[in-house]
Write a structure and sequence with these properties.
single chain, 241 residues, twelve-stranded antiparallel beta barrel, 2 helices
């Protein structure tokens, strides 16, 4: 964790360099930005593929901008376990983001969002809590955007209710995201999860590389979990309509 925060401080110190070399209007189509918000009637498709520990997970998310402040989304995942029985579909996730604090013009004011949602259904064979039945969640996201960099943090609480167990956990996720030039972006994040069942405590360090082609982004990411020494490799395609 100490190395992550040292890296984050170093990145913050070079913000002016990136800001001078990035396009200010890149924010409009930068769907990987941690504080990105869809505009009215925009549709965003996000298709993801993740591999770890002989498990392959495919996901699809579709988001819709009701207006400039409210986005609704739905997603579902399917995973294939090549070494065990943990195959199946995740719960369906229906959620939203409401922007309570907006930047004024091109100035870098604090942006803040409320997150909320519900997950229901899903296979009992796949691992919890990611694929758990009847999960309610709420959170708060805040940060600042510049032409070349975004710094953000999210606090999110989830409550799980199913036939086998009940559990709750809280995630804290700081992120740094850099628009290196009009075509390339870099991102880093750290996820700290504390659960009522300590078995599900997690600490994730992640990094991603983003290539932009018009309204489409191709993303590669690498994530490492310290509690279980688990390494995930994944890719994602974002298409903005």
């Amino acid at each position: 964790m100490r190395k992550f925060f040292s890296l984050l401080v170093a990145l913050v110190l070079i913000v002016p360099f990136f800001s001078e070399n990035a396009r200010a209007n890149a924010l409009d189509q930068d769907t990987s930005d941690p504080l990105y918000m869809l505009k009215i009637e925009d549709v965003l498709s996000q298709t993801s593929l993740i591999y770890w520990d002989n498990i392959l997970r495919l996901g699809q998310t579709v988001s819709y901008g009701l207006n400039n402040r409210l986005t609704i989304a739905a997603n579902v995942h399917y995973q294939q376990d090549f070494d065990g029985p943990e195959d199946g579909f995740s719960s369906i996730d229906l959620g939203g983001i409401y922007r309570v604090g907006m930047a004024e013009g091109n100035s870098a004011h604090i942006i803040s969002d409320v997150l909320f949602g519900l997950k229901f259904g899903g296979s009992s064979r796949v691992r919890t809590p990611y694929f758990a039945d009847s999960t309610y969640y709420a959170g708060y996201r805040f940060g600042r955007q510049w032409a070349g960099v975004t710094l953000a943090a999210t606090i999110k609480s989830s409550w799980i209710f199913d036939d086998v167990r009940g559990m709750a956990y809280i995630d804290f996720v700081p992120e740094a995201y850099f628009r290196v030039n009009p075509d390339w972006r870099l991102g880093a994040s750290f996820t700290l999860r504390k659960a009522t069942n300590p078995h599900y405590n997690q600490e994730w360090l992640g990094g991603k590389v983003v290539r932009q082609y018009g309204r489409t982004q191709y993303i590669g990411h690498l994530d490492y979990e310290f509690e279980s020494n688990e390494l995930q490799v994944g890719t994602q395609v974002n298409i903005l309509f």
